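Exercise 7. Given the encoded structure of a 359-residue chain, write a plausible sequence.
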């Protein structure tokens, strides 16, 4: 896998399983799902290209599942396009979507927003409705949902700093539970890739939010956004930090690997070390309900895809589409940070994606 200048927060967390079986591709690199309707101009045929991170990636596959469900509801056709987790490949796919004229709209999970922005502008100028899953700009610009240019119809996603602030809140809450409020707490912090600007932003927000509190942070090795990487990083880290109270990782999949490492170190996850993750995977939700995990911050790939298809359909049909949709705050009451108490309050919440591919 190539390293990009930066990956959006979702893309980082979504890196967990690029090696699983892909959704079946046709010769054009896409998978079609169609539902048609003919009840007048308001129901004119709408064709949406769904340009994901990578067709082999689990987050993209769960996102695609949500897109197909909404397409059936709207009576539109959606096609999955492979971003190949590569900025150049994704840009080329978007350019092909412009020249092929086979779509009325494109919905994009951007790998590199900076490089994709000018091509998204070209797409809009060519008449395509462009809906993106993150602000197309620098990592700092992803702290706010903003179309930035008129050629982008809508941004449907979440704000990077907002999420990281909840990482810090979960860490502090875990410390309070483990050692008691106001007492010294030792925290291990595992990035997915410490050189990624998104990870750097998240780590910076965590440290700034916890500054002045009796919390000592030690950086663990990179977990590589995967269960094996989380296991390896936690195994190495625990050799010199077996006395930590809390371990946070910028990805649930890394926490899943850390659970095994903690057990092998003779410690009990959820008792000796409290665990905080990111992603809201089914594994994370199950771990919280079981008491082996302390908390996670949610992601909603299927909800995001449904909203992207809904907004794109509105725009193509001439309806006024919202310039932004924050999937973590809309509608009010959406669960952002999940701990045991919140999980108990929402017994039907299961998580919208997992390390396993959709069946």
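Solution.
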């Amino acid at each position: 896998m190539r390293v990009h200048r930066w990956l959006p927060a979702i893309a980082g967390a979504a890196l967990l399983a690029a090696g699983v079986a892909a959704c079946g591709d046709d010769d054009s690199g896409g998978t079609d799902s169609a539902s048609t309707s003919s009840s007048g101009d308001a129901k004119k045929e709408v064709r949406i290209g769904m340009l994901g991170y990578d067709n082999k990636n689990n987050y993209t596959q769960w996102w695609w599942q949500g897109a197909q469900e909404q397409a059936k509801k709207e009576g539109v056709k959606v096609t999955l396009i492979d971003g190949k987790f590569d900025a150049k490949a994704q840009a080329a796919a978007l350019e092909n979507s412009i020249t092929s004229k086979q779509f009325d709209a494109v919905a994009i999970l951007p790998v590199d927003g900076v490089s994709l922005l000018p091509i998204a502008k070209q797409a809009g100028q060519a008449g395509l409705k462009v809906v993106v899953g993150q602000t197309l700009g620098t990592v700092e610009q992803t702290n706010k949902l903003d179309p930035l240019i008129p050629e982008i119809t809508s941004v449907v996603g979440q704000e990077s700093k907002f999420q990281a602030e909840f990482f810090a809140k979960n860490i502090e809450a875990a410390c309070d539970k483990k050692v008691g409020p106001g007492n010294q707490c030792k925290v291990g912090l595992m990035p997915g890739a410490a050189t990624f600007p998104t990870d750097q932003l998240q780590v910076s927000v965590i440290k700034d939010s916890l500054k002045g509190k009796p919390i000592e942070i030690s950086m663990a090795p990179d977990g590589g956004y995967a269960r094996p990487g989380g296991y390896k990083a936690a195994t190495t880290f625990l050799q010199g930090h077996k006395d930590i109270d809390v371990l946070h990782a910028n990805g649930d999949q890394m926490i899943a690997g850390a659970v095994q490492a903690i057990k092998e170190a003779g410690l009990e996850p959820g008792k000796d070390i409290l665990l905080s993750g990111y992603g809201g995977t089914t594994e994370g939700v199950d771990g919280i309900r079981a008491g082996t995990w302390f908390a996670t911050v949610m992601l909603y790939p299927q909800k995001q895809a449904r909203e992207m298809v809904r907004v794109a359909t509105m725009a193509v049909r001439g309806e006024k589409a919202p310039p932004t949709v924050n999937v973590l705050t809309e509608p009010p009451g959406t669960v952002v940070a999940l701990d045991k108490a919140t999980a108990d309050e929402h017994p039907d919440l299961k998580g919208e994606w997992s390390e396993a591919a959709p069946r």
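Remark. The longest helix spans residues 160-179. Students should compare their own answers with the one above.
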